[in-house]
Specification:
Strand 1 and strand 2 form a beta hairpin. The protein has about 160 residues and is mainly α. Helix content is about 60%, strand content about 5%. A two-stranded antiparallel sheet has the order 1-2.
């Protein structure tokens, strides 16, 4: 904001050296512009803080929901079934996702950006299409996941 004499979008610069000799109307324009800019920054900070609180509340409620564990168990069961019924396809999917996974096998949101997710999806779909062609042989380098206790309990029901 040139009137506020801000040195950047997030910092106010020094007042002009001739500020005390400026006409009163011009000096008040600068001061009012600076007050307005500071008010905007305060509202932005309040907004960010509230958003973080809301996200935390939603996350806590989602984790406390009775179906949260059931979703995890259903996902584990689906992965176990994919590995059991389609080991080559599962190996290709996991191999494509391995560069983006953490030590516990989860995908890092910071690393696995939407652009990388789209690229990985295209590669996985191309790999799966190639598996369906009998003239292309893809190696199955990944061993199946061990069946989890929770998954075994769901399967026994």
């Amino acid at each position: 904001m040139p009137v506020a004499r801000a040195s950047s979008p997030s910092a106010l610069g020094a007042l002009p050296s001739d500020f005390s000799h400026m006409p009163e109307q011009d000096a008040f324009k600068i001061l009012n512009a600076r007050r307005f800019l500071v008010a905007i920054w305060q509202r932005r900070a309040e907004h960010t803080r509230l958003i973080h609180q809301y996200v935390g509340t939603v996350t806590d409620r989602r984790r406390a929901a009775p179906d949260h564990n059931l979703r995890s168990q259903a996902l584990d069961a689906a992965l176990d079934r994919l590995v059991a019924e389609h080991p080559a396809a599962a190996a290709r999917i996991l191999a494509r996702l391995r560069p983006y996974a953490t030590a516990d096998g989860r995908l890092e949101e910071d690393v696995f950006t939407p652009a990388l997710r789209a690229q990985a999806k295209r590669e996985v779909l191309a790999d799966l299409a190639a598996i369906r062609r009998p003239d292309i042989v893809l190696p199955s380098a990944i061993a199946p996941r061990p069946v989890l206790a929770a998954t075994a309990a769901l399967a026994a029901r």
